[in-house]
UniProtKB/TrEMBL annotation:
It comes from Virgibacillus siamensis. It comes from the Bacteria. It is an enzyme of class 2 (transferase). Pathway: Cofactor biosynthesis; thiamine diphosphate biosynthesis; 4-amino-2-methyl-5-diphosphomethylpyrimidine from 5-amino-1-(5-phospho-D-ribosyl)imidazole: step 3/3; Cofactor biosynthesis; thiamine diphosphate biosynthesis; 4-amino-2-methyl-5-diphosphomethylpyrimidine from 5-amino-1-(5-phospho-D-ribosyl)imidazole: step 2/3. It catalyses: 4-amino-2-methyl-5-(phosphooxymethyl)pyrimidine + ATP = 4-amino-2-methyl-5-(diphosphooxymethyl)pyrimidine + ADP; 4-amino-5-hydroxymethyl-2-methylpyrimidine + ATP = 4-amino-2-methyl-5-(phosphooxymethyl)pyrimidine + ADP + H(+). Signal peptide: none annotated. This is Hydroxymethylpyrimidine/phosphomethylpyrimidine kinase. Keywords: Kinase, Thiamine biosynthesis, Transferase. Its EC number is 2.7.1.49, 2.7.4.7. InterPro entries: HMP/HMP-P_kinase_dom, PM/HMP-P_kinase-1, Ribokinase-like.
C-alpha cells in the first residue's frame, strides 16, 4: 500500500467549486491526502441553484471505477450524489470488491431545494447501498427519509442514528444537526457508543457544500488512520472553521472556505 493516504470520491460535479467532487478534492488536498474522483453526473449549478444535470452512462461510471481500482490501491472512499438506481447498482457492484472504509454522504436534495437523486432511488440507497457503509452522514431531512419519522431534537437524532445502524444496517451513523436551531450538534453512533459533537451556530447563509466538505474530511482523516470518533471530531473542527471563514461568493449561498484553514490548527 502507498505511504501517502489515497482517497477516492464518487460523486457529481459543481462548476462553481463549492460542493460535490470539487469540494471533496479541495478538502482531500487540504488534509494532505492524495485525492481521486469518479464522476457520476455533471451538474450545471452555482451558488443560487441547479440548472441542468447530465448523468454519465453507467458503463462510463464503471470504466472510471475500473481504471482507478485496477491501478491504484487506496485507503478509504466516499460517495456523494448517485442519482439513479442503475448508477447505484453499478457503484455497489464495483465497490463491493473493496475491503476499505466506505463513507456515504446520502445526497438527496441541494440546499437550494433542487432534487439531486431520482425519488425511486431513495429506497435503493437505503436497502442496498447503506448496509455496505462504514459510516453514513445524513443531514436531518436525509435521516428522516431513511427512518420515516420526524427528528425534532438531539434525543431523536440519537434514536435515529441507532435505528440507521441496527434496523437498516449501516456500520455507523452521523446524524448532522445543521437543519435544527440552536447549537450545531451532530450525533455519531458507531454501533457501540454515542458521541456528540457540538459547535456554536455561525450566523451565515454561506454554507454551500458543507455536507460534502465534512464527509470528505472524515474520509481523509480515516485514511490517515484515525478511528471513527477521532475522524468525526477532527472533521467537525475542519467544517466549522470552513463555515466560519465562508464568504459571499456569487449571488446565492456562498461556499465554505478551505483555503483560510491553512492559518488554523485543524489539520
Ligand atoms: N450555521 C452553522 N454554523 C455552524 N455549523 C453549521 C452551520 N450549519 C451547518 N453546520 C454544521 O455543518 C455540518 C453540515 O451540516 P448540515 O447542514 O446538517 O448538512 P448538509 O450540508 O448535508 O445539509 C454539520 O456539522 C452541521 O452541524
Ligand atoms: C454535485 C453535488 N453534490 C452534492 C451537493 C449537495 O451538497 P451539500 O454539501 O449537501 O450542500 P449544498 O450544496 O446543498 O449546500 C451538491 N449541491 N452538488
Amino acid at each position: 500500500m502507498n505511504k501517502i493516504p489515497c482517497v477516492l470520491t464518487i460523486a457529481g460535479t459543481d462548476p462553481s467549486g463549492g460542493a460535490g467532487i470539487q469540494a471533496d478534492l479541495k478538502t482531500f488536498q487540504e488534509l494532505q491526502t492524495y485525492g481521486m474522483s469518479v464522476i457520476t453526473s455533471v451538474v450545471a449549478q452555482n451558488t443560487t441553484g441547479v440548472r441542468q444535470v447530465h448523468h454519465q452512462p453507467v458503463e462510463m461510471i464503471e470504466e472510471q471505477l475500473d481504471a482507478v481500482i485496477s491501478d491504484i490501491p487506496f485507503h478509504a472512499f466516499k460517495t456523494g450524489m448517485i442519482a439513479t438506481i442503475d448508477m447505484m447498482r453499478s457503484v455497489a457492484r464495483k465497490v463491493s470488491e473493496l475491503d476499505i472504509p466506505f463513507i456515504m454522504d446520502p445526497v438527496m436534495v441541494a440546499k437550494s431545494g433542487d432534487p439531486l437523486i431520482a425519488s425511486d432511488a431513495r429506497s435503493y440507497l437505503r436497502e442496498e447501498l447503506l448496509p455496505m457503509t462504514t459510516l453514513i452522514t445524513p443531514n436531518i431531512p436525509e435521516a428522516e427519509d431513511i427512518i420515516g419519522w420526524k427528528i425534532e431534537d438531539t434525543e431523536a437524532m440519537q434514536t435515529a442514528a441507532k435505528e440507521i445502524v441496527h434496523t437498516y444496517g449501516a456500520g455507523g451513523a452521523l446524524v448532522k444537526g445543521g437543519h435544527l436551531e440552536g447549537k450545531a450538534i451532530d450525533i455519531l453512533y458507531d454501533g457501540e457508543n454515542v458521541n456528540s459533537f457540538e459547535a456554536e451556530r455561525i450566523d451565515t447563509k454561506h454554507t454551500h457544500g458543507t455536507g460534502c466538505t465534512y464527509s470528505a474530511a472524515i474520509t481523509a482523516y480515516i485514511s490517515r488512520g484515525e478511528t471513527l470518533p477521532e475522524a468525526v471530531e477532527k472533521g467537525k473542527n475542519f467544517v466549522t472553521a470552513a463555515i466560519r471563514d465562508s464568504f459571499p461568493l456569487g449571488h446565492g449561498s456562498g461556499p465554505t472556505n478551505h483555503w483560510a484553514l491553512r492559518q488554523e490548527k485543524v489539520r
